[in-house]
Amino acid sequence: MNKVIEITIAPNGLTRIVTSGFFGNACREASRSIEQSLGQHCEEQLTSEFYISQRTQTQQHHNQ
After folding, report:
1. Which of 17, 21, 50, 64 fits as disulfide partner to 3, beta carbons 3.0 to 4.6 Å?
2. pLDDT digits 0-9 by tens, 2-26
3. Among the residues of 1-64, which ranges form H helices?
4. Distance (Å, rounded) from C-alpha 28 to C-alpha 24?
5. How many other CB atoms sit within 10 Å of the CB of residue 43?
6. Which strand (E) or helix (H) includes residue 6?
7. What's phi and psi for 17, nearest 5 deg?
8. DSSP state for residue 12 in the 8-state scheme
């Protein structure tokens, strides 16, 4: 799976960062510098990918 960071900037200046293809805390690490550059952090919504550890994902890949 490809790793993607999607940034949306609304006309009112609010931004949204969506990551995909990252597992566990890797999504936060990948987007941290972008979030810091954009300013105030208001909300975070974690996806199911966040709760999958890299080890679990690697095991699933090997089983396929």
Report:
1. 21
2. 999 999 999 998 999 999 998 888 9
3. 26-38, 54-63
4. 9
5. 5
6. strand 4-9
7. -115, 125
8. T
